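Researcher: We're teaching a course module on how sequence relates to structure. For the next exercise, students receive a sequence and then see the predicted structure as tokens, so they can try to spot secondary structure elements on their own. Here is the exercise chain.
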Amino acid sequence: MEFLLTERGQLLCSHTGPIPTVASQSLVTIDGAAVLVKPDPEGKPVACPRVNVPAGQAPCGSTGSAQGYSELVFIDGRAVCLGRVRGNTLAPDRPEYRVASCGQSLASEDA
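Model: And here is the predicted structure for the students to work with:
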């Protein structure tokens, strides 16, 4: 079951740095929290805790493009974000970011 990601959800880089979950739409909410749609997780700053990194690496900086959007559920023509959304940050070694929590367990792509 893939839950829809809301602005109360949590995205983290692979170093546990939080990423803002800011919804670009307000038409659909779940328990008062707006549902995120494509490309809401992309291009966000990462509060990466990684410091004193080896040459060729850097703190995560910001999020790159993501995958894991719904192919069935759309809001105003844009695919909703699911709990499987993930992508890479724009640091040179491209660490991954992913959903740690959807922020709700009421609505899923299946229901």
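Model: If you want an answer key for the exercise: DSSP finds no helices and seven strands in the chain. The chain has a mean pLDDT of 95.
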